[in-house]
Write a structure and sequence with these properties.
about 425 residues, alpha/beta, ten-stranded mixed sheet, three-stranded antiparallel sheet, 10 helices
Length: about 425
């Protein structure tokens, strides 16, 4: 039986030969690339843990637990209309930006639909008037190519102003990188292709031409995004997948574990080229049976089932839940407590709550106050949740590896009949 990993962090100098790596969102990435990788927590613990990267020594001891979205990543948030995709993207981006505003971190909102204002983003991000200075809403983005133009202007600005800062990389080494710039795009698949419109005079919103323009955008700017630490949250709608049975068809480049009935708009490469994909799948009212009303989340009464994908990494999808209010604002604390209850990390025992790792029970009505003000309660929950999720990631990875090995063996068997 595999040894369970501890969630205790240890600051230590590491070498490439001394460690093994368990990746959340980047499992199959070359370890050397983590030298320039920095992770930014997004404010939602149940997301940060699933997409993070853990560094272990040869004795399977956790040396560094990286939490959050990696620097320079392209992330896609997909789901049906009205479920809260853009709201989540704005909240994630704002939470990444907020701690580094004084160093020059910026949040750009490419709002094709025109539904967001500075005040709306300020409310979602819980920004002060001072902090709103980092927000820029860009409405004049008529084409997919406009995204590339914005990225180019951001790069020029960072170079001119030398917007770098010192921090720690995934191996806990000192590095100097560009401060993060977050772009929320709502939505790339609603933009036409400028090249097609101007040069070919064809329908610029045709799905095939859009997919080609999006793929070109990736090819032209992905390396620059990594170098200049530009993090993108691309909002993407979904439609029903058309199931065409064709034994000669090539495998689709799509998120592993994506429900068969779901199609990500923008072409297969829109999903395939994303580092992280989050599908907001469905929602239901969080009744007393689903969410303990005594924990005072009465204003956060929708449970949204989410599926997290690691594109190109060969890992199965992972499920988690987010709690949202009637105003469609996601509540990070409610989401975390809800997950802990669902995973039996917090269990009800009459009028009190029993928490893994704590000897003393807590009255239900005191749980939130204790979580906010008692570091022992908070750390116990974090530790128990992290350990559960880390071991889930291990099991998921092994299951994926076993299935892939079976498929390889089947392919070898078939070659014998050719």
């Amino acid at each position: 039986m595999a040894k369970k990993k501890s969630s205790k962090d240890i600051d230590i100098e590491l070498t490439m030969d001394d460690v093994s790596v368990d990746f959340g969102g980047t499992y199959n990435i070359d370890k050397s690339k983590l030298k320039d990788k920095v992770y930014y927590p997004c404010g939602f613990r149940n997301i940060d843990v699933l997409i993070g990267t853990n560094i272990y020594d040869k004795d399977d001891k956790l040396l560094k637990a990286n939490r959050g979205f990696g620097s320079g990543t392209w992330n896609t948030i997909a789901g049906p209309s009205g479920i809260g995709k853009t709201t989540l993207g704005v909240q994630l981006g704002a939470n990444i930006t907020k701690p580094l505003i004084d160093l020059g971190a910026k949040l750009f909102m490419l709002d094709v639909e025109g539904g967001y204002t500075i005040d709306r983003i300020k409310s979602l991000a819980n920004f002060t008037d001072y902090e709103t200075r980092c927000i820029t809403i860009v409405e004049d983005t008529p084409y997919i190519e406009s995204v590339g133009e914005l990225i180019t202007s951001i790069i020029d600005f960072k170079e001119k102003n030398k917007l770098k800062y010192k921090t720690k990389n995934a191996y806990n080494e000192d590095v100097e990188i560009y401060v993060p710039t977050v772009i929320v795009i709502d939505s790339l698949t609603q933009m036409p292709s400028k090249t097609v419109y101007e040069e070919e005079k064809q329908n610029p919103t045709d799905a095939l031409h859009q997919a080609g323009a999006i793929d070109k955008l990736f090819k032209l700017y992905r390396r620059k995004m990594i170098e200049y630490n530009i993090i993108v949250f691309s909002i993407c709608a979904i439609t029903e997948e058309i199931n065409m049975t064709n034994p000669m068809a090539r495998p689709k480049k799509r998120w592993k574990g994506l429900p068969a009935s779901v199609k990500i708009l923008g072409g297969r490469k829109n999903a395939y080229n994303s580092d992280i994909g989050i599908l907001l799948d469905s929602y239901e009212e969080a009744t007393k049976d689903k969410l303990d009303s005594k924990v005072s989340f009465l204003d956060s009464n929708y449970s949204i089932s989410c599926i997290l994908f690691k594109s190109r990494q060969g890992l199965d999808a992972l499920e988690f839940n987010l709690i949202a209010s009637l105003q469609n604002e996601f509540n990070a604390l409610a989401s975390f407590i809800y997950e802990c209850q669902a995973l039996k990390i917090i269990e009800s025992a009459g009028a009190v709550k029993k928490i893994q790792g704590l000897d003393n029970n807590i009255r239900t009505q005191d749980l939130i106050e204790k979580f906010k003000n008692d570091v022992n309660v908070r750390n116990a929950l974090f530790k128990a949740y992290d350990e559960y999720r880390v071991n889930t990631l291990d099991s998921t990875r092994k299951t994926s590896e076993q299935r892939d090995q079976i498929l390889k063996e089947q392919d070898l068997m078939m070659e014998g009949y050719e």
